[in-house]
Specification:
With 597 residues, the protein is α/β, with parallel strands linked by helices. It has three domains: 87 residues, Gyrase A, domain 2, CATH 3.30.1360; 269 residues, Rossmann fold (3-Layer(aba) Sandwich); 177 residues, Isoleucyl-tRNA Synthetase, Domain 1 (Orthogonal Bundle), CATH 1.10.730.10. Helices cover 55% and strands 11% of the residues. The chain contains 22 helices and 14 strands. The chain has a five-stranded parallel β-sheet with strand order 7-6-5-11-12, with helices on both faces. Strands 1-2-4-3 form a four-stranded antiparallel β-sheet. The protein has a three-stranded antiparallel β-sheet with strand order 8-9-10. Helix 8 crosses helix 11, helix 13 crosses helix 14 and helix 19 packs parallel to helix 22.
Length: 597
């Protein structure tokens, strides 16, 4: 914030004048004054006591007196222990608002040719099942993080790695081949990813039935698993796929095509996209080649059964399988290949993987292996590790078909938003098309905000009913406030009131109005902090605080009925800029805001 930089300079000059000592800007600790105390900014004077050789109270008062006399922005101060609370003049806050008002994309830095390139991987679905609630958190975090990194002046490439090969894919393929009777998305009326997911669940059901029969014959669970014909067939199908068998590859291509069409529908509705999609089927061979190179160079070793391993005991870890004895790949193999291809394709300065915290060990190992293979980017990989999403009823299981389907959840959220909006009369006087669009915006906004407002590193419980409340820390509360401001501005326009480019500095402001300007001004450092901490939750918390403060102001002060034209105009400009920041901040979360609601 410019005003902080100005006051910091005056404090540095004051320390020099009062005590003959030089201090740096880094030593000046300015923070927002706590609500229970009077003032806007608080200076921590503790670092200067050894310079002043006086008590905290005396030091704070001397600095306060100096600032009041020499810094026009400071009109008053008070001292609490080692804290000097500074009150800034209304004219300064109007200057700040004027500056913000003239910036259409306030708080957003544009990338240049010299900006660093950040690649962010998110989504990473398997083609044996549709996207579920866990994928929703992943996609929303990844997309929001991409927008936040862009807003911090980075060039960003949003990327996805589709896990389109492996034993799990073969399970769905085998089940469809055995029991599908030629069923297609068209013949069943199902989205392709849902159809394939049903066969993944069916495989697990048939597999468990087979194990139960074998165990009934006296076999242990381990023996039954070893003798399972169904699992043996799935493994053979994987071997045939890797060998390039035409019939297996043809079936795989056909079924994956159904899934991709389904994924595209889900991504579009969710409002996320990608600049580049990689497929494991196209990257795993690159990974195998790198692993084999590692063996030749003595980085990895081969066991008697021809499987290939990395010995990471010197790194404080254990041994890691890289290629199975039958020559098939593991996830680590694919990730090595994908990383190499990405850095071949793009001049990446930072690579961020948005993957759940159950994969912490995986990415720790990946970073070490890439470094051992001689890739300079190995040590710099960032694993944006996030917590799991649970429902009030507990965890979800894909094999048992107990996951919360992403498509069904989004539709449920939209339907709930539609019903609540109708009950509250918020869709009155709207066309059916407008009502449907509002239901979509509010329903998806509820879902996105509820998920993103939680610290990404924490596990969370998603409660649909709580998320769609029009009061409290929710998406609809913020969206409704934005629509309310738009309504005020439309009425002002209808009254012939035009917003000026520059407000007069002499307009008297209330404490609440000064607080709102200060909150708007903190948007810039909040965006920067969210980018540094990789945390969309910081944006959510900021928007909620801003909107809550505005609603209190809206309740306590008249805007359009204010008789003093300068004050009325100030409040309209203030409202317009609150709306501007809310819209911009919500866009960083991938959330739309409606102008009518």
């Amino acid at each position: 914030m410019v005003i902080e930089q100005q006051i910091t300079g005056s404090i540095i000059a004051g320390i020099q004048s009062l005590y003959g000592a030089e201090v740096s800007a880094e030593q000046i600790q300015l923070q927002k004054t706590k609500k229970e105390f009077k003032g806007h900014l608080t200076l921590v004077v503790a670092p200067f006591l050894r310079i002043s050789k006086k008590s905290p109270d005396a030091t704070a008062r001397e600095i306060g007196d100096y600032l009041k006399e020499n810094e026009p922005a400071i009109i008053a101060y008070n001292v609490i222990n080692v804290f000097l609370n500074l009150t800034i003049s209304s004219s300064c806050w109007i200057n700040v608002l004027n500056d913000i008002h003239q910036q259409s994309e306030y708080g957003i830095k544009k990338a240049t040719e010299k900006s660093p390139l950040v690649m962010i991987e998110y989504s990473s679905p398997n083609t044996n099942k549709p996207l579920h609630l866990g994928h929703i958190r992943n996609n929303l975090l990844g997309y929001s993080l991409s927008e936040i990194m862009k807003a911090n002046g980075n060039k960003v490439v949003k990327t996805n790695i589709v896990n389109d090969r492996g034993i799990h894919i073969c399970k769905s393929m085998l089940a469809w081949e055995k029991w599908g009777n030629g069923e297609t998305p068209e013949s069943s009326g199902k989205k392709g990813d849902h159809l394939i997911g049903d066969y993944y669940v069916l495989f697990d059901k048939k597999y468990k039935e087979e194990l139960k029969e074998l165990e009934a014959k006296g076999l242990t669970k381990e023996e039954a698993e070893a003798q399972s014909v169904l699992m043996s067939e799935a493994r053979e199908m994987l071997r045939q796929w890797e060998a390039g068998d035409e019939s297996v590859r043809s079936l795989w291509s056909r079924m994956n095509g159904w899934v991709y069409a389904g994924f595209d529908e889900t991504y579009k509705r969710m409002g996320v996209d990608f600049d580049k999609i990689y497929y494991e089927s196209e990257t795993y061979l690159e990974g195998k080649n790198e692993v084999l190179r590692g063996v030749k160079e003595g980085v990895f070793y081969e066991r008697e059964d021809t499987s290939i391993w990395a010995d990471l005991k010197k790194d404080g870890l254990d041994e890691k399988l890289l290629l199975r004895a039958d020559g098939t790949s593991v996830y680590m193999t694919q990730d090595i290949g994908t990383a190499k291809l990405r850095f071949d394709d793009y001049p990446i300065d930072k690579m961020i993987y948005v993957v759940g915290n159950e994969q912490n060990y995986h990415f720790q190992v990946l970073s070490i292996l890439l470094d051992k293979l001689g890739f300079a980017f190995g040590k710099g990989l960032v694993h944006f590790s996030y917590g799991m999403v649970e429902l009030p009823e507990g965890k979800m299981k894909s094999r048992e078909g107990t996951v919360v389907d992403a498509d069904e959840l989004m539709e449920e959220m939209i339907q709930t938003a539609r019903e609540i909006s109708q009950e509250l009369g918020k869709l009155d006087e709207m066309t059916p098309e407008e009502s449907e669009d509002i239901a979509r915006i509010v329903g998806l906004g509820s879902l996105k905000y509820f998920i993103l407002k939680v610290d990404p590193r924490k596990n969370m419980t998603f409660n649909p009913k709580e998320s769609i409340d029009f009061n409290g820390n929710t998406g609809p509360f913020i969206q409704y406030t934005y629509a309310r401001i738009c309504s005020v501005l439309r009425k002002a326009t209808a009254q012939g009131i035009l917003l000026p480019d520059v407000l007069p500095l002499s307009t008297p402001l209330s404490e609440k109005e000064e607080t709102l300007v200060q909150l708007i001004a903190t948007f810039v450092p909040i965006v920067e902090e969210a980018g540094t901490a990789y945390s969309p939750a910081l944006i959510c918390n900021y928007i909620y605080d801003l909107v809550k403060e505005y609603n209190q102001f809206y309740h306590d002060y008249s805007i359009l009925r204010e008789e003093n034209m300068d004050i009325k105009t100030f409040r309209l400009v203030l409202s317009a800029n609150v709306a501007k920041v809310v819209k911009s901040a919500m866009s960083l979360l991938g959330i739309e805001v409606p102008e009518r609601m």
